[in-house]
Structure formats: structure tokens, C-alpha cells
Amino acid sequence: MRPSSQQSTQSTRESTRERTRHLVIVGNGMACHRLIEALVTSPARPAHITVIGEEPVPAYNRILLSPLLAGDTDCAALTLREAHWYAEHGITLRLGERVLAIDPGKKHVVTERARLDFDALVLATGSTPAWPTVPGIELQGVHGFRDLEDAKTLTEIARRGGQAVVIGGGLLGLEAAQGLYQRGRGALSVSVLQRGEHLMNRQLDAHAGALLKKTLEARGLNVHTGARLAGLIDDGQGAVAGVALEDGRVLEASHVVVAAGITPNDLLARRAGLACDRAVRVDHHLRTSHPAIYALGECCQFEEHTFGLVEPIWRQVEVLARVLCGEPGAGYVEAPSATRLKVSGIELYAFGPVEAAIDHEVLRYSDPESGEYRRLLLKDGRIEGAVLYGDTAQGPWYFHQAQQGADLSAARSALLFGQADVEAFLNSPTQEAA
Ligand SMILES: Cc1cc2nc3c(=O)[nH]c(=O)nc-3n(C[C@H](O)[C@H](O)[C@H](O)COP(=O)(O)OP(=O)(O)OC[C@H]3O[C@@H](n4cnc5c(N)ncnc54)[C@H](O)[C@@H]3O)c2cc1C
User: Fold this and answer.
1) What is the pLDDT of residues 271-308, one digit of tens each?
2) Which of 2, 134, 400, 411 has a CA 20 to 30 Å removed from the CA of 116?
3) Contact between residue 147 and residue 139 where contact means Cβ atoms under 8 Å apart
4) Which CATH number does 5-128+263-324 carry?
5) Does the pLDDT of residue 6 top 50, yes or no?
6) Sign of the C-alpha dihedral, residues 93, 94, 100, 106?
7) Which residues make beta-bridge pairs with 60?
8) To which H or E segment does residue 32 belong?
9) What is the pLDDT of residue 8?
10) Ligand 1 atom with least separation from CA of 298
11) Class for domain 347-433, per CATH?
12) Using a 6 Å cutoff on CB, does residue 35 contact ligand 1?
């Protein structure tokens, strides 16, 4: 039951122009917040909007949970809008309330407290940490890192000290590990387990991964790569006491933080019979297999893509806001995103494929003394991927060139040194003569 794009454009117009009197949004996270910010600027917005969020506070900047845990920022910095802003904009905000079921036929949602009819429904339920299916995962002392409550719990753990093991050497795992370590100020030993052979193996090549490992270890973190989790060890009273690896090693752990990927929150949609695969399937107007139900953010799947960064979600929001205002224009198109790590003092920037394909030309620059490293992947003189470690100032320029598909073959020898050198090279008299 996969919706077709043409069908969608036509019936989206029909369904939204007449019907979006009452819009209900499930989940008051980052996607929902951005969507209502866009809707309230339009005179064609749905007359009545109800937002239902299970967290007890209005949507906040989830990205800043990492600096919050590290103690680099405070809770106030995470605030996006206070509850009164919703009321001032004619939005009913129901917080601390979980939606339990959707009835697409009767067009209502059932929450813990009420039944609400909708004309259009948006699922913006995000995702949850992906829990490894190993023995002991249910023990006390095993935590995720997803919301404000988790950040508070981890902050308290860091203050108390002990041994924390973070499962996952990707972006989130490293931000959690560094945050815990920084908060613990020496009282908490922190180990990171990475299943792959190097850290952030979805974004970095082996060389940059090794540089990152070295930097983190020099700061005091214990990093174990190629570490396959076998199970968690019970202290005999239902709490975690350690982590067992497949190679027989055992690490002591008073707390374990699971940050090894995310699972889209698509249960409501599945139970309601909407088409789901790895997440809730949507077409290019973010419409699910039901004409009045949309999904966006980490709970949705567009073609074969699911989402874990805000950049593509912001583009989804622009599309959906227009659709809900009865003005569907161009649909959502998948585009590459760049990655940064939010660990103070560590600069890295990456986009595109990690491994070079057979037809890629690889350009590398490495300065072991300063710890700087740059690697570009080119195809036919066009940048397809970059990994920058140490000095990342040129990252956005490389990304822009890649998005533009700019042919940089003429400046190949200057490329690793960035925009100024490339432009100087291209404008040099010898080049002009050539
Ligand atoms: C620690 C951390 C750091 C991050 N750093 C970055 C970064 O640097 N850059 C980046 O691009 N992205 C980052 N992300 C990812 C980014 O935060 C997410 O991509 C973004 O929040 C997704 O928005 P969303 O609205 O889809 O989901 P969420 O923001 O998770 O919101 C979903 C909301 O729905 C609620 N909900 C779920 N089910 C129900 C229900 N049945 N009833 C009611 N409410 C429900 C949830 O409680 C939640 O509040 C980070 C994430 C975390 C956790």
C-alpha cells in the first residue's frame, strides 16, 4: 500500500483545502515544533491545532542535550517556546499525555485521557534508542540518552562516580561518553564500546577514526573498537555490574548507556494499519498510506531513507507546512547531509561515502604534528565525499561544491587547501592563459 506521488498531489489538495480545520499533531519534539512555527506564519493555517506530547515540557532543542550533559550549557538554553506561546497562537498543547491509538476510519486518536477527532493528523513521534538484544539489557542501571529525563539521570550518575560503559562509538555515543566524563570530573571512569573497527565508522574513514580515538584516549576516555557485546552482568540484585564482550573480556560497569542507533517510533501507525517498513512510509508530501494522516521526522521513512539528523527534517517541515495550508508545491527530495561532532575541542566534519569506490580519486592531506587530516573523494573532478579532522573551516565550502556538482578538475592540486587556494589557483595568470 505505497502511495503514488501523482495520486498524492491531487488528493492532498482536495483533502487539505476543505478538511484541515482541526489538525492534531502527535509528539511535541523538534519536528513538531518547527512545523507549528511554520504554520502560524500562514493565514491558511489549520483553524485549530492540537499538539499532544508525552514529555512533561514543551518541545526543546534536543540537540543541546549533549552540551547540557557535559555542563557546557544550561537547561534554559534548550527552551524553544514556553507553553503560553502555544496558547497565544491558538494551539492547544496537551503535555504529559501519551497517544495510545489512532482510528484512521473514524479519524480520532485515543490518549490516556481523552478521545480527539481530527481532520488531519501528523505523526511526529521521533524515535527511541535501539536496545541491543543481549542478556541483561533489562537490568537496573542501563540507560538511553534521548530526552531531558535521560540527561538529568546521566548527570546524576556522573556526579556520583563509578564506572560507566557507553555502548556505541557513533556521534551520540561519543557525545554521551564525553559528556559523562566531563561532568564526572575524574570521579567517573568512562569506556566506549564500538562494534566497528574504528569510531564513527558511518562518517569517518579509518585514519580519521584513529585520530579521534587517540584524542579521546588522551582526554581520559577508554575506547574499545571491534568490541562486540555479549551481554550485561547482573550484580545479583537486578542491577548491572559489568559488560561482557564476545572475545571474553569483561568490563566493570556501575552504569551502562545505550547509544547504538535509534528505532523509529512507528507503533501507533503500525497498529492503525498504516503502511510501515523500517518506519512510517510517506510519499513526497509526507503523506502516509491514509489520505488524512502525515508523518515527519525520525518516525517516517521516505523511499528507503530514515532520518536521524535535523537538516532533512527541516526540509520535510517546509513541504508539510505548505501541504497543510492547502498549497502543496514541490515535494520532499532526499539530499545529502553533513555531520559534525558536538564535543568541545574536537573538530570534525564529514559528508558523502566513507569508503572510496573504484572510480573515486582520493586526495589526502595529513599533518601528524598538528593532528590535521583531510580526505576528499572525487569523481570526474567533482567532490562526492569529504572527511576533515582538526581544521574543519573549509567543510561547508566543500559541501557546497559537492551539492552544486562543481567541476573542480582544473584546481585539483589546490583542492585540499580550500576555497581561497582554489580561487587563487584558478585566477592565476598561468591558469587564465591555459
Ligand atoms: C543527545 C542528542 C543529540 C543530538 N544531536 C544532534 C545534532 O547534533 N545534529 C542533528 O542534526 N541531530 C541531532 N540529534 C537528533 C535530533 O535531535 C533528532 O533528529 C530530532 O529531535 C528529531 O525530531 P523528531 O520530532 O522527529 O523527534 P523527537 O524530537 O524525538 O520528538 C518526538 C516526540 O514525540 C513524543 N512521542 C512519541 N510517542 C508519543 C506518543 N505516543 N504520544 C505522545 N507523544 C509521543 C516523544 O516523547 C518526543 O517528545 C540529537 C539527538 C539526541 C538525542
Assistant:
1) 999 999 999 999 999 999 999 999 999 999 999 999 99
2) 2
3) no
4) 3.50.50.60
5) no
6) negative
7) 79
8) helix 30-39
9) 46
10) 26
11) alpha beta
12) no
